[in-house]
Automatic annotation (TrEMBL):
<dbReference type="InterPro" id="IPR029058">
    <property type="entry name" value="AB_hydrolase_fold"/>
</dbReference>
<protein>
    <recommendedName>
        <fullName>Alpha/beta hydrolase fold-3 domain-containing protein</fullName>
    </recommendedName>
</protein>
Amino acid sequence: MKGCVPIHALRRPGHKRLIDYLPKHSQRLYSYKSHDRVNVRCGSSGHVSIDLMNIAEQPNSPLFIHLPSSPSNGSHPASIPRFLQGKPIASINYRWNTFGRPTAYVDHLWPSPVHDTFFAYKWLVENLAPEGLKRRDIYVYGSHLGASLATSLALTESQPHKPFAVRGLVSYNGIYNWTMFFPDHPVNRPGKYARNPSSYYRPLEGTYIHRLQQNLPTFFQSTADLFDVFASPSLFFHNPGVKIPSSYHLSEQESDAIEALTNPNAEVDPPMKTPRRSRLIFPPRKSTLKLPETLLLYDLLPMLPPANMPGRPRSRRQWGNSLEMQANELAEMMQSSIEKVELKDRGLWDDEITLLENEQSRRVNVRQAGEENRMMVMGERGEKLVQEWLTERMSS
């Protein structure tokens, strides 16, 4: 594998652009025709590395930005899904603590990963843009932890007037609203006729959602970070209707009870009013942003037979915070924005607006990819859905 490209040389006046600098390798590495790694400075916060694959061989093809399921800190690129192999890829090795690693770093907490992502994107746009007025599309793909970053990047960099910008997003098993992990989020509360109205949804032990919930302090510096719209891109479109809690894992009622036991003589502050859940306008009406073509994929939990009826599987219907709920909420928010803001405003001047009657469902798709697995790998059904989605858009 070739070593890191010397960025200082690329920035000297008179030097060729990166796309002219990269050599065409004869040997194949991980099925790539070429592979180079560059290190991009992130202000005073160190560097983020980008793995560039098949870039020199396909300078005019759409660029695929890959944000892997979890940070990759080794010398090899992160695993690339089959539907991206052979395409020009820029895989961003964002820095973010994750579970399963013995050491957590303070400087790898939120917001480090979003800063890494946007510094890397800025570098890619500056160095891989086509010459002159030629247009080149960018598609963003992210899964699991990388899906949150991919989505916030796509939503804020989809600018149709720019010749080299994001045109589409594919996101798999993403978390788009981290506030759903709080017990007091409305999605985790039972109905008003529940036997125990103070109960709340707890994810099944061993599932991906459960592992994330157990490790929230590994990812974020405080509970307030989960309200950051770049961590929770669904919050670009709405206020979640949740107060910032003092605990990641306890309800407000549980926190108050513990406080009363440990400090019985402490003064009790009057309860803060829970903010109302409300819609927000995104993209802003005066911006040049446009919601991108989007495919949101999610896995369901495997079907399990109940203990008293071994031969009959349980229903897969899920309530509370789940990968399905995360994808459906974001899809509904995006579709509503297209219908009630973008198309409504366009109808003021476009006489042919009726031709776009189903634009929101055409542009934003949400589909089940398969069943959740421990390997966090997309199955054949999901890969087929992505391949069909890409073929339809890249051939039009």
